[in-house]
Every structure is written in C-alpha cells, then in structure tokens.
Amino acid sequence: MVPLLVFAQSSSFAKLGDLFIEFRASRGKLLFPEVYQKFQPYLKDEGHRWQRLSPEDQQKLLRELSQWVKRCRKAEAFVEPVLSVREAALQAGAEDFAEELFTRAETSLQKAASWLDRGRRKKAQEALQQAQSLYQQAEREAIRNNLLGQAQILIQESIDLDASKFTPRSLALTRQLLQEVERLIQQGPANNTELSLKNEQLAEAAQHLLFLTQLLNRLYETPENAEAYFLELEERIKELGESAGYSPLLTRDYGVILQEITQAVQNLNQTIQQLRNRVQELQQENYRLMQRLQRHQTREEQLARIQKKIEVVQQIFRGGDAQILADTSRIRIRINGIAFAPGSATIPTEAYPTLNRLTRAILEFPLQMYRIEVIQPTAGNLKYSENLARLRAKAVQTYLQATLPIPDDRFEIVGQAIEDGPNPRNKIVLQFHILLK
User: Fold this and answer.
1) What's the pLDDT at 409?
2) Phi, psi (deg, nearest 5) at residue 353
3) Domain C-terminal end among 293, 325, 343
C-alpha cells in the first residue's frame, strides 16, 4: 500500500489549533468566554505551554474542546436570530457609546447559551429575548450619543461652507434623513430595522454633502481647477468605457455616456457569466468522470492518486514561504507574512504571485470545499482585529474567484486575532484548507 501523505506532520498542537479555530468560528469566544479563556493560553508562544503537558492530558483537552465545538454549534444556531441585532448595535458603536447596555446584552446572550447547554430551553429563550431587547436599546443609545452628533457636525460644516447655495438638494435630503432618524429613535425598538437602515443612509448622506460642498467651493473659487477636474473625470470615463469594450464620445452629456457604459458593462458581465456557467458545466462533468474512475479504483490506488496530486502542490510552492501539511481529511497550505497595509483588507500586489500559486493548487483539487483563514496578531481592539482578519480572508476569496469560477458556498471564511501573534515573527498568516471528500 502506498503510504498516504508521507510528508504529513499532524500533531496534537495542530489539532488544537484547528479545533480552536472551529470553536471561535462558531462564536465560542462570545457565547462561552470561560472556555475561550481556558484554551487560548495553550496557543500562545508557539505552544510551549501545551508541549509541557503529558500526551494523556493533551488528548483529554482535545476531547474536551471537540465536545465544546459541538455544543457551541448548537448554541450558535439557537442564538442566530439575535446575532444580526447584535451586529447592528456594533455597527452603531454601542460598545463605546452605549457600553453599559451593550455589556448587559452580552451577558444575557451568554446566559442564553449556558441555559441551553444545560437543557433549560425556556430559561434560554427568556435570556435570548432579554439580550435582543438590550441590543436594540444599545443601538438606539449609540445612535443618539454618537452618530447623530457626527451627522449634525457634518451638516453644520457644510452650512458654514454655503451648502444652501452650492448643494441645496443634498442639504435638504440630509436634513430630512436626520429628522427621520430622530423620529425613529423616539418611537422605540419596534422600528429598529428601519432605524438601522435610515441611520446608514444618514451617515453616508452627511459625508457626501460635505464632500460635494467642499469640492464645489474649490471649483468655484478657482476656474482652472474646475477645468482640470473635468478633464481628469473625462479621462477616467474614457478608460472605464474602453475596459468594457466601448469608446465614449466625450462631446455628449455625461449622463448619456455613463448609461451607454453601464449597458456595455452589463453585456460584458453577461458574457462572463455565460463563460462561468460553461466552466462549471465542464467541472461537473469532470467530477462525474472522477467519481466513475474512483468506483473502479482500489483504496490503495485512490490514495496513491491523491498522494501524487499533493506532491504537485508541494512543487508549486517549492521555494516559497509556505508549509504544506496534510492528512486523510484535508490539505493545509500555511502562508506566512502577507504584508497587508495597516487597517486595510486590500491584497498587496507583492502577494499576487503567492495567491496565483494557490490558484494552481486548487486546480489540482477541483470541486472540493475550501476554508480560508487569516490569523493576525493584535495588541489593541480584539473585535476590530477579528473583523479585519475576516475581511482580509474574504478579499483572498474574491481574488481567487476572479480567476476560478468557484461558487461562494464552497468557501468557509474565518478571521482570527491572537494577542501574542500567530508566529514568532508576529506576521499575518494565511491558512488555506482543501477539504478532501
């Protein structure tokens, strides 16, 4: 028998890391913070504390964490209806501007998970309803304390720059949205969904109002700047049109030109979608042929075929800063040190060659499920860092999908922030898992 994945370097510490990521991805840190606090220290300092445990204690802890992952998934499904309400409160800044209410809501949510874990579903439902009410109150309080004030400041700055003369329609719209948000706050939690939407519209409108007012002030004061601005705008419109296979005639109204560019882009997208559909059809046909082949292969032959493909993946990443680990259920490609700009989820151009290698590796294992994890160090706001890590993982997915027509439902996205960093060099780590069927 061909030895499967002879280079596999699976260890108890690697299993701990995988389970801990699954625990966090299932909202374990939020729902069972005491469990998170118990296991998180073992992942620090490259696992030195973990390695000091006996093999028996390691296995005991792995079994315990595995059970917590299952319990956490059950609790996450139960609290799922409230998580969107919580997210709306976070977006409004409730952690900082309605701290007391938000903390009480978090406590109620954790109580709901705890009651459910103990089989007290009625108690859990009561705690969940209380959490939802507190999150809604926290969102309204944060909007009142923070976002309304920001919008009012932006509106006043615009007025000081003569918005009533330069941008009267935008000023009227922003003032109307401000009044609607104030009204919805007074009406209470029954309108929280509408409040969230109107508040987002108000924030965007107030920022746009100030931008337009500042721009028109500059153009009005210096006519030559206005000419340069519109010439640059025409150049960008021309480039946009040509990228969609259309050459705009710039002597016509901008509205007509943009409408024609929009139609050209729609036609281009339709062609791209047709090509994607055809590629998916070919992939499905390839998958069916692979299934037929597997039915006629022995287990040893199947393992040997997978082994050869993994060796190809090794060759693809040879010479790069990547580790290839594998077992019978997955292939993990660990890439160290992607240099995202601080606070940015835009993929740096120097990472393109590495991600292109990743694309070639995917082609060796088509029609599988894939998990993208971004693990990054943090010394500040952990929630912010986790969200940023998730956005960066999503950016990697988007990059891969620009080359390969892989549906969204074949990807699992995980963002993780670790206080002491994921490796000694304290760099951002990308882990890409090919989940073997």
Assistant:
1) 85
2) -60, -40
3) 293
Nearest one of 383, 330, 322 to 14, comparing CA atoms: 330
Distance of alpha carbon 437 from alpha carbon 330, whole angstroms = 9
Judged by DSSP in three states, 365 sits in coil
Q: pTM score, two decimals?
A: 0.58
Quote the pLDDT of residue 10: 43
Last residue of a domain, one of 232, 263, 293: 293
Strand (E) or helix (H) holding 374: strand 369-377
For residue 92, the one-letter residue type is A
Mind listing the pLDDT tens digit for each residue in 99-149?
A: 999 999 999 999 999 999 999 999 999 999 999 999 988 988 888 888 888
Can you give the C-alpha Rg of the chain in angstroms?
Answer: 27
Same-domain check for residues 261 and 308: no
SS3 322: strand
DSSP string, 406-436: --GGGEEEEEEEETT-SSTT---EEEEEEE-
Distance CA 346, CA 396 (A): 9
Burial string for 348-386 (b: 16+ CB within 10 Å, else e) reads: eeebeebbebbeebbebbeebebbbbbbbbbeeeeeebb
